[in-house]
Amino acid sequence: MSMIVGVLLACAAGLAGTVLCPPDDRRRGGRPLALAGTALLGAALFGAALSASPPARAGEFLSGSATVLDGGSLMIADRRVRLQALSAPDRDQTCWDAHERTYQCGRVAAQALAERIGDASVTCEPRAAAVDGIATALCRVGDEDLGAWMVGRGYAMAARQDPHPYAEAGARAWGRRLGLWSGVFQDPDAWRQSHRLPVARLAAGS
To answer: Which regions span the lipid bilayer (predicted)?
Structure first.
């Protein structure tokens, strides 16, 4: 709004200067052209100010019912968000359990997140700029951090960053062989890359 006010004031000043302090060429019929030019410039600047998208607001919150897309992302308030600081298996990813049997670990992770949320309202606070229209966010149900919950129960890995908010939760899940750590699984990020790259890295839970 302040940008629009500034543009309007600048246009008003320019128009006033054109009317009150006419240049010499007005005596030769230049006044209509000067007035028209000023009006066109003001209209163009005003239109640009109105069409400019407002900057992203720090601390913006999304709140409401959520649809689980996979173990690491939600749709809330018609916007898709990724849970911060974790890497969860895609919905179609398969893993191996303690008996070396394959299972749909991606669907298990998504189901666990959906059951944890249930009918509760989810509140998400975007923490990083959106990439491809998807923001990374800290999401909670009540006071519980959903990312910490997923990592702490072994349904997702703590993302590789230092310092990491879920490092301790991830270490406990690994030590107790929970979720993914009960068997053998492919690093979710490597699994996603394997659709484009021929080589993929395996992460074992032992």
So the answer is: 33-52
